[in-house]
Specification:
- By secondary structure, the protein is an alpha+beta fold.
- A hairpin with a 2-residue loop joins β19 and β20.
Length: about 700
């Protein structure tokens, strides 16, 4: 333990120095030393306080002869490092990317010529290197991050060479060409993110280019011309593409488009890859990222930073990011020891989809797939799609037509709820004839469900159109299991089943569910609200914080897009039937997993519709994917949803709430409006909130 003289000397030395940003290697040691110093000061203060109390009570003289010195020390410390005020503490910053403690960051007082306000960072002139500038308002203590990625996962580069990162940080980027930008990002920026799974890979840094930044780097502000707009990438003879190739960098097969990946082969375990996103080339789709492309660079960095912290660093569209998240959380390989040599090598990671693509069973494929074309398959296809059903107008009763309102309910991320604890196949399909149905085995079954009798006021659970099957057809396991649940004896004629199974989507579901719930909570929609408060909070949640509302929209689009990407169809006019298209080279091209998610979601919807009819006597007017429209005596879901005498929602039906699988209000219209659409052959569920509900949700 240091003596009092040594303690005073060390603290006085600290008080006489200007705070500076230490080198990264010194930060951990300095943080530890600061903790020790604070502990010693606390002990000294406690001892002095007790001595003063004893002295004031007349018990004894103060034990320490240095009371004045202690007071001087404490006053000096308080003056030099004042406590944060409430305004600073109120600034919301994602915890994983909060700014470092004061001892780690240059203060704005030390930068009079480059001051950066807390609300909107100014745009300083360019300097060489990756010097950081952070607003003082974002200085909140946080756990130490990976020292390799001290500046977070991404930055938004403006035309003046300022790279705006998460937590208000601003870096100076001197690059004037794309190769220079790549080198700066990898060598100096401190951007990137740690892997999400111990067997996975670190996320590559993302640089988002504004229109001005794109022009500064020699890129066109827009992709002009028919060929460039159609292919959404620069031609191979463009000067910037030539610069990249001349600098010994490579582009992926997607070329230099709105989301360009520039890389070199990894050296050992060190990846050399940078992701670019070009805003003026429509990298951020308006349906998935509403209003983000029009924000200032610091605002864009905030939105993408929160998404990166809660979901994944964007690597393309939200659909691409949803698919990449699956792989990041279930890496295909892991390190295994070779028993013969004792060396470590790459091996299969159990529970993953592996590294090699897998052909589906013929009924699970699309008509243009080589498995179908080359085999001459004509035995039908799996048709597990979301509901698009409208009740026959002739089945409306007089009582229903006299109700004044049509109220739409929307299930929160219904596909995400269906992915929870979903067992899917992990191995190749095997063909069986006349198998005994087993609801625990994922696969595709050829079954005749045309004899299943159901109420015509409800959609059939076996077809997307809600119509009754007319003969044998292919169904996913969940659909056949539901027929068995309804009391029917199912006898499959054929089946394609998988022997190796697992809950592949579980970590994907868990991470996206947490992201969705946490973001809603940040917008004021929390789990502790009652139903009336929940409806009120949902009415205003998008206005609470437009940036976080955009994050929420991106999370929902990630769910739908990720599931859709599991069966990506061929694109381009030059494609010929029977050819293999690029998506088939991915292990994640798995139409059977997509079918399992959609089948379970549709069955879940039908189960709720049936329970609602039993509990309330109400039948839906229309269903579209995860939206259902009911006739109602009032303009609120509270007017027709079933509640117990205690006021709690009845289990089994639709329930309001902020978690996946629970419902929210989609929209309200008059019953006359709904009937008019039904008579014209339109689906009220598509338009009840105004516009096109499917497109509005980014599907």
């Amino acid at each position: 333990m240091a003596s009092e003289e040594e303690l005073f000397a060390s603290v006085d030395a600290l008080l006489s120095e200007e705070p500076q940003l230490p080198p990264p290697a010194e930060r951990a040691r300095l943080r530890e030393a600061a903790g020790v110093t604070q502990a010693r000061l606390a002990t000294a203060l406690k001892t002095t306080t007790q001595s003063v109390k004893n002295w004031e009570n007349g018990r004894s003289e103060p034990k320490s002869p240095r009371l004045d010195a202690y007071q001087r020390l404490l006053n000096g410390w308080a003056a030099k490092y004042p406590a944060r005020d409430s305004a600073s503490a109120a600034v919301p910053v994602p915890v994983a990317f909060a700014a470092p403690a004061a001892s780690e960051v240059e203060t704005t007082d030390a930068l009079p010529d480059r001051a950066v306000p807390a609300a909107q960072p100014a745009r300083p002139g360019t300097q060489a290197g990756a010097t950081s500038r952070r607003p003082t308002a974002t200085r909140t203590a946080r756990p130490a991050l990976d020292p390799r990625f001290e500046h977070g996962p991404l930055a938004v580069l403006d035309g003046d060479g300022c790279a705006y990162g998460v937590g208000g940080i601003v870096l100076d980027c001197p690059a004037t060409t794309v190769p220079e930008l790549v080198e700066w990002t990898l060598r100096e920026s401190g951007l990137g993110a740690s892997k999400l799974h111990r067997n996975g890979k670190d996320s590559d840094p993302l640089i988002v280019l504004t229109a001005a930044a794109a022009v500064r780097l020699g890129l066109p502000e827009r992709l002009e011309g028919h060929e460039q707009r159609r292919s959404l990438r620069l031609p191979e003879d463009h000067p910037v593409v030539k610069q990249v190739v001349s600098a010994k960098w490579q582009l992926t097969q997607r070329g230099f488009g709105p989301w360009a990946r520039i890389y070199r082969k990894a050296q050992g375990t060190e990846r050399q890859c940078v992701q670019l996103a070009i805003l003026s080339w429509d990298a951020l789709d308006e349906r998935s990222w509403p209003g983000v492309a029009q924000m200032e660079p610091a605002g864009i960095a905030r939105v993408l930073g929160v998404y990166a912290q809660r979901v994944i660093t964007p690597r393309g569209s939200t659909a691409v990011s949803g698919l990449e998240l699956m792989t990041a959380l279930r890496p295909p390989t892991r390190a295994v020891r070779d028993e013969a040599s004792g060396n470590w090598m790459s091996g299969h990671n159990p529970g993953s989809l592996g590294t090699d693509p897998m052909d589906p069973a013929p009924p699970e494929a699309t008509p243009e797939h080589p498995v179908v074309v080359n085999s001459g398959w004509n035995g039908g296809f799996l048709n597990e799609e979301a509901y698009q059903w409208v009740r026959d107008v002739s089945l409306l009763t007089d009582d229903e037509c006299t109700l004044p309102y049509a109220v739409g309910l929307d299930l929160n991320t219904a596909f995400l709820a269906a992915a929870a604890r979903l067992v899917v196949g992990l191995s190749a399909p095997d063909h069986f004839h006349a198998p005994t149905f087993n609801p625990k085995i994922p696969g595709s079954w050829l079954v005749d469900l045309s004899d299943v009798e159901l109420d015509p006021r409800l959609p059939s659970p076996f077809t997307p159109e809600g119509t009754r099957p007319t003969g044998p057809a292919w169904y996913q396991t969940h659909t056949v299991a539901y027929a068995q649940e309804l009391g029917y004896n199912v006898r499959p004629l054929e089946a394609y089943l998988r022997r190796e199974t697992g809950a592949y989507l579980d970590p994907w579901h868990d991470r996206l569910k947490t992201a969705y719930v946490d973001t809603l909570a940040d917008l004021g929609v929390t789990k502790d609200l009652d139903d009336r408060q929940f409806l009120a909070a949902m009415e205003r949640h998008k206005d609470a914080d437009p940036a976080l509302a955009a994050v929420l929209a991106a999370i929902k689009a990630t769910v739908k897009g990720g599931i859709g990407k599991l069966r990506e169809r061929p694109q381009g006019k030059r494609y010929k039937e029977g050819e293999r298209w690029p998506a088939l080279q991915r292990p994640t091209w798995r139409p059977d997993i997509r079918a399992a998610v959609i089948s379970k979601a549709r069955v879940n919807m039908h189960r709720k519709l049936t329970n609602m009819a039993r509990m309330t006597g109400l039948y839906p007017l229309a269903v579209l994917s995860d939206c259902v429209v009911y006739p109602s005596p009032g303009p609120s879901p509270l007017d027709f949803l079933p509640y117990a005498a205690s006021g709690k929602p009845q289990p089994g039906g639709f329930r309001l709430g902020p978690t996946p699988g629970l419902a929210k209000l989609e929209g309200v219209q008059s019953m006359l409006w709904a009937v008019d659409l039904m008579e014209k052959g339109y689906n009220p569920a598509r338009h009840i909130k105004g516009g096109d509900a499917v497109l509005d949700e980014g599907e």
